């Protein structure tokens, strides 16, 4: 089998995640873009790990990436909830207290 | 082989839908389709354990958390877009760069091998025992941190 289409898919997912992260004005949507980018990177790791078919190192590495992504999502959602309760908005453009006070 | 291409197309289309769809909840559901398709790609790449972890953790855990977050925070249904021109420019530039870089790459034919799942367990307990323990500590700390941040009360301080 050929790994190349998976590599292209990983690159595409990373770029779409970056576009979502930059263009969307919603904290939850930005988290979605971040998850998409992490998945693109994971696909790349798995595809390159498959080139050396003897060891399962790529799979292990991707496993730890998934684990860190879980921690990031949990803390990120908690921070988004706090920010929403404080500012009553989930638009990062409106959260500008540090910018306007000086 | 044909299934792999179908899964790749499904993942790419649903990922692009996230960029286009205005509603946050629909975007989250589209992300779920994308994650399940990626799990199928993992199976095609003979990483079955990671596919199961992907379904359990991503489609089950993270997406549930995100949908709860949407239900709590999203008062207005639609979100406005911003930074459209720089975002699209950045993404297309990065896509073009990666496309040419991958075009120059020559990976060749890969013989798919089946790695047994018990070798993963043995690896986690012997070769990767240190990172495994540190990962457990990271999960504990992030769990406590998320609870403390989410339940922070100004009167109690």
User: Biggest interface and its residues per chain?
Assistant: A-B, 69 and 81 residues
Average the pLDDT over all residues of chain A and give the rounded result.
86
Give the termini distance of chain A in whole angstroms.
60 Å
Apparent shape of chain B? globular
Quote the beta fraction of chain A. under 5%
Largest sheet of chain B: none
Q: What order do the SSEs of chain A take from the amino end to the carboxyl end, as H and E?
A: HHHH
The portion of residues assigned to helices of chain B is over 70%
Secondary structure tally: strands of chain B: 0
Q: Measure the end-to-end span of chain B.
A: 59 Å
Give the % helix of chain A: over 70%
Number of helices of chain A: 4
Structural class of chain B: mainly alpha
Query: Overall 3D geometry of chain A?
Result: elongated
Protein architecture, described:
The complex is a heterodimer of chains A (102) and B (157). Chain A is mainly alpha-helical and 102 residues long. Helices cover 78% and strands 0% of the residues of chain A. Chain A contains 4 helices and no strands. Chain A has helices at residues 4-23, 27-51, 57-87, 97-100. In chain A, helix 1 runs antiparallel to helix 2 and helix 2 runs antiparallel to helix 3. Chain A is elongated. The mean pLDDT of chain A is 86. Chain B is mainly α and 157 residues long. Chain B has 6 helices and no strands. Chain B has helices at residues 2-20, 24-44, 48-73, 84-104, 117-125, 129-150. In chain B, helix 2 runs antiparallel to helix 3 (48-73). Chain B starts with a helix and ends in a 7-residue tail after the last helix. The mean pLDDT of chain B is 86. Classes of the chains: A mainly alpha (102), B mainly alpha (157). The interface between A and B is large, with 69 and 81 residues.
């Amino acid at each position: 089998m050929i790994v190349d289409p998976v590599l292209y898919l990983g690159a595409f997912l990373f770029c779409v995640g970056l576009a979502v992260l930059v263009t969307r004005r919603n904290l939850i949507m930005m988290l979605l873009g971040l998850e998409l980018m992490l998945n693109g990177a994971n696909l790349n790791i798995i595809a390159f790990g498959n080139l050396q078919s003897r060891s399962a190192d790529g799979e292990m590495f991707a496993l730890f990436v998934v684990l860190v992504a879980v921690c990031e999502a949990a803390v990120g959602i908690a921070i988004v909830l706090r920010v929403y309760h404080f500012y009553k908005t989930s638009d990062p453009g409106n959260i500008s207290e540090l910018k306007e006070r000086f | 082989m044909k299934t792999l291409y179908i899964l790749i197309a499904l993942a790419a289309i649903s990922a692009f839908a996230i960029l286009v769809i205005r509603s946050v909840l629909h975007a989250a559901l589209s992300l779920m389709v994308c994650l399940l398709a990626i799990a199928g790609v993992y199976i095609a790449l003979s990483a079955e354990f990671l596919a199961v972890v992907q379904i359990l953790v991503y489609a089950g855990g993270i997406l549930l958390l995100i949908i709860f977050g949407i239900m709590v925070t999203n008062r207005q249904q639609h979100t406005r877009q911003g930074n459209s021109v720089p975002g699209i420019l950045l993404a297309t530039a990065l896509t073009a760069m990666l496309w040419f870089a991958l075009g120059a790459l020559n990976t060749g034919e890969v013989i798919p091998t089946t790695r047994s799942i018990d070798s993963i367990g043995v690896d986690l307990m012997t070769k990767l025992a240190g990172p495994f323990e540190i990962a457990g500590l990271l999960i504990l700390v992030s769990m406590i941190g998320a609870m403390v941040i989410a339940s922070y009360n100004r009167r109690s301080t």
